């Protein structure tokens, strides 16, 4: 990670983005490392990745191209940040889960673990379907020491400070998913 004030990625306007937190090269290295660990754990098995839309889209696309195992993709929508908000609503909206997850080795893939509400709710729903195994993976986890009851993911890409981040799939009000780096969103009142 970096606290650097590197030049802003394409697609970012300097009024909205504070700085790059995790540069693209570091993301790629870590994603490849995660793919190696996941590939090793599921060697000889068929894996179903249940990716949480929309935030995990780019993470999913990069990760699976480094996975040397048989695998399927399953998709589900969830959203706990309504509109232009940087506060979790704690009430994730979800689509229907595919019943085909029963008896499968399921890995839930999400972009970020914040309050943990989304992951906890999804985990419970998937568990009820009866997968053969169920694990979870997030690209980033916010460091929230006052939140000990959060679910513990099996795989975490990066531990980050409690700031609102965008880029590499993560959005603010549906914007900035296309930034190649993980960037900190400028907060109201923060100077440029
Ligand atoms: P949780 O349910 O509070 O853990 O929130 C998880 C969801 O909120 C993630 O899947 C993200 O879509 C979204 N989210 C949480 N923190 C951020 C952030 O810093 N930037 C963008 N989206 C976030
Ligand atoms: Mg999400």
Describe this structure in words.
The protein has 192 residues and is α/β, with parallel strands linked by helices. The protein is built from three helices and nine strands, in the order βαβαβββαββββ. It has helices at 24-41, 57-64, 117-129; strands at residues 17-22, 46-53, 70-79, 93-94, 105-113, 133-142, 155-160, 165-166, 182-185. The strands form two sheets. The protein has a six-stranded mixed β-sheet with strand order 4-3-2-5-6-7, with helices on both faces. α1 (24-41) crosses α2. It is globular. The mean pLDDT is 89. It binds inosinic acid and magnesium ion. Inosinic acid binds at residues 52, 55, 80-81, 88, 92, 110-118, 164-166, 170-171. The site of inosinic acid (IMP) has 20 residues, from β5, α3 and β8.
Query: By helix and strand content, what is the structural category?
Result: alpha/beta
Query: What shape does the CA trace take?
Result: globular
Uncertain segments are none
Number of helices: 3
Secondary-structure element string: EHEHEEEHEEEE
Question: What is the spatial order of strands in the main beta sheet?
Answer: 4-3-2-5-6-7
Determine the N-to-C terminus distance.
21 Å
Q: Please state the average pLDDT score.
A: 89
C-alpha-based Rg, rounded:
16 Å
Q: List each distinct ligand once.
A: inosinic acid, magnesium ion
| Fraction of residues in H or I helices | 10-25%
**Biggest sheet overview:** 6 strands, mixed
**Percentage of residues in DSSP E strands:** 25-35%
Number of strands: 9
């Amino acid at each position: 990670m970096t606290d650097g004030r590197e030049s802003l990625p394409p697609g970012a306007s300097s009024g909205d983005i504070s700085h790059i937190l995790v540069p693209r090269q570091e993301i790629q290295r870590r994603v490849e490392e995660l793919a190696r660990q996941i590939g090793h754990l599921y060697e000889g098995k068929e894996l179903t990745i249940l990716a949480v839309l929309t935030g995990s889209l780019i993470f999913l696309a990069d990760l699976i191209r480094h996975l040397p195992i048989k695998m399927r993709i399953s998709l589900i929508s969830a959203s706990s940040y309504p509109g232009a908000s940087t506060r979790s609503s704690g009430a994730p909206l979800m689509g229907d889960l595919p019943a085909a997850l029963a008896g499968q080795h399921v890995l839930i893939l999400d972009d970020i673990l914040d309050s943990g509400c989304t992951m906890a709710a999804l985990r419970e729903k998937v568990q009820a379907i009866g997968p053969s195994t169920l694990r979870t993976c997030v690209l980033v986890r916010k460091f929230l020491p006052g939140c000990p009851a959060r679910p513990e993911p099996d795989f975490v890409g990066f531990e980050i400070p409690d700031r609102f981040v965008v880029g590499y799939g993560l959005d603010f009000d549906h914007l900035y998913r296309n930034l190649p780096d993980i960037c900190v969103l400028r907060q109201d009142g923060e100077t440029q």
